[in-house]
Amino acid sequence: MKNTYIGSRPGLLAKKLVSLLLQGMVLAAVLGVAYILFATTQENLEIRGIESGFAFLWREAGLPIGDSLIEYDPSRSYGYAFLVGVLNTLLVSALAIVFATILGVMVGVARVSNNWLLAKCAAIYVETLRNLPLLLTLFFVYSVVLASLPHPREAIVLAEGYFLSKRGVYLPRPVAEEGFGIFVAAVCIALLLAVIFWRWAGAYKRRTGTSVPGFWGGLAIFGTLATLAYLASNSPIGSELPVYKGFNFKGGLALKPEFAALLIGLILYTAAFIGENVRSGIQSVQAGQIEAANALGVSRGVVTRLVLLPQALRVTIPATTNDYASLVKNSSLAVAIGYPDMVSIGGTIIGQNGQAIEIIAMWMAVYLTINLIISLVMNVLNARVQVVER
Amino acid sequence: MQSRTVTFHASPPRPAPVNQTNAIGWMRRNLFGGWKDTAITLVLLAILLSFVPDLIQWLFLNATYQGDDDVCRQNGGACWPFIIEKFQVLMIGVYPQDLSWRPAVSALALMGLAALTYSGRIRGVTLIAAWAILPIFALIMIGGAFGMQKVDQSVWGGLMLSIMLALVGVIVSIPLGVLLALGRHYGSPTVKVLCVTFIELLRGVPLITILFMASVMMPLFLPPELVINNLLRIQIGMILFSSAYMAEVVRGGLQAIPKGQTEASLSLGVTPARTIAFVVVPQALRHVLPPLIGRCIALFKDTSLVIIVGLLDFLGMVKGAALDTDWLGFQAEAYVFAAFVYWLICYSLSLYGRRLEQRGPSAHT
């Protein structure tokens, strides 16, 4: 019987050659198709009189933007306008990630609660939000909930300087006054001292076995020093209150309804997913572990901190990384309700000069960068909680 | 020494104390277990009481079921005649009215097949074939062929369009996803790099940018003679996007197949291609059916994004209806109805997924 596999080097070599040849053909085919597409695109762009390249970024944009973190007016360049969009995307994503995590953890813990009512409420929340398109939630928040708020004239006053109205949420804007620099420096020093104390407490405990409340002690040190510094530098943080003037509020910190709707929608939607991650994390810890710790007389806080959390996080963190990434991508739905994020501004630019390829490449570059950063940070976090296996 | 055998009889278990089994006992355990529990329960009850009665009143008790917008405004509750009047537009968009039986037949076929699938009457190859044929049947019915009057795709809309986009998207993107996953898992280095690049690029960007690309850029890529209409371009964009996610799900299944399976098959003389097609892939798919269904739900939810590139799907029609000047001020009803429909479809799909998960990977298909 002929055997081409065992002990025949020439046969192996031939196989390798065939495989290399095949790979080369695949690559050639892909490159060929790519070249044809590229050539047709060039031709089409020429026919339509659309230029290519990134020179347009330095040209005057002339497009108005409603919400900007940095100084902006329409005489600025396209590149600058796009940057405004990138910053808006980053702002809304960062805020949404923080609040969605807080709400999500609360929902996840509530879902496994012994309290029947609490668990049921959390379950209804999760099952509702997860099974609705985010866009619908956004539309609902934007054109039903926020639109039903009163006119600025009759704005709901939550507290002195906090207004809720159809035109958005208005808050007092913190203003740095004289001595702010010194105060910031003092706070940094206080933080440093607190961290040093915390680490010393840990080292002391390891050396002597006597436990010192490092975390709470550090917090106390930080709180006391920061308060002292604030008083000593003569209260350097003032606030500018929004005032109703003309037909709207002037001054203060304004959250436009588009921003508020996008933020609320993203938080509510993502929190439902994070809540599920937290729940499955908690349920993945065997009941016996908790029971054993309880039987040994370990206090509840310590059981949570040292038995439950480290094991639950192993399941929760990887899934949550994905949810953070989708949150950032979902922030692009801003375009549907008119918040000027990167996609919305980029879309306007495409409408003006037709340079879709460049803009889409820039979108991809920014999103891939953000997602890469998220997964890097989360991987570091994940590496710290995973079991080191042999 | 004599050994005596003693037989022990366990005394029958005593019934649980009455205060543990009745309603009060249940409430004590589940609602008022301690002062913390009691506080949570009371606060939650207060919150629920503050809006649930109002909500029920608005939804049902004060609602108008018949009449026009004036009657609705007088009653103050929800205005259901608005939804009833807009029902056809929400379901099939501006599809010609006299032909509306055609989408209806397709919808019945879909529901019938869904019921058959859920009950487990049809399985295996028949099931897959039926689901592959269904969209073709629906396309023929809705678009018109074989002597039926042709209906242009520009008038397709409403829930019909959403479901079509999702159905075709799922059915085409699963095989594509399997191919991509196989390429990533078993492919030669070149193929692997190509697959990984494709998957990660598409997963790295939001669907909207893909839809923009399909709607705005695809005509630029293609020679001028080749014109693809907007709907098909967007459908292609959705399929490519979805296939990247499907590929990742399927890859999870491929990794779960023990190596012994392929080794056993190869040692029996089965060719590698047949081993992958008949040994590995079926098992892998069975493993990942629940997450695949999760992706189907996600894709159905994602179809709502097509309104941003100018298609009027269900949500687009809802938004249009909400802005109708004849029925001004009934936006909430429109969105509540939309939420109900989306929720019903997605939740029943997720229930089905959960059922498959409970049955385990070996029992189904």
UniProtKB/TrEMBL annotation, chain A:
GO biological process annotation, one example: amino acid transport
UniProt-listed Pfam families: BPD_transp_1
Annotated TM spans: 20-38, 78-110, 131-149, 180-201, 213-233, 253-274, 360-381
Domain ABC transmembrane type-1: start-end pairs: 86-378
GO cellular component, one term: ATP-binding cassette (ABC) transporter complex
Coiled coil regions, renumbered to chain: none
Major location (coarse): membrane
Keywords: Amino-acid transport, Cell membrane, Membrane, Transmembrane, Transmembrane helix, Transport
Record-linked Gene3D superfamilies: MetI-like
Bilayer topology term: Multi-pass membrane protein
GO MF annotation list: transmembrane transporter activity
Subcellular location: Cell inner membrane; Cell membrane
Similarity comment: family membership: Belongs to the binding-protein-dependent transport system permease family. HisMQ subfamily.
Name of the protein: Amino acid ABC transporter permease
Gene source species: Nitratireductor pacificus pht-3B
Source taxonomy: Bacteria, Pseudomonadati, Pseudomonadota, Alphaproteobacteria, Hyphomicrobiales
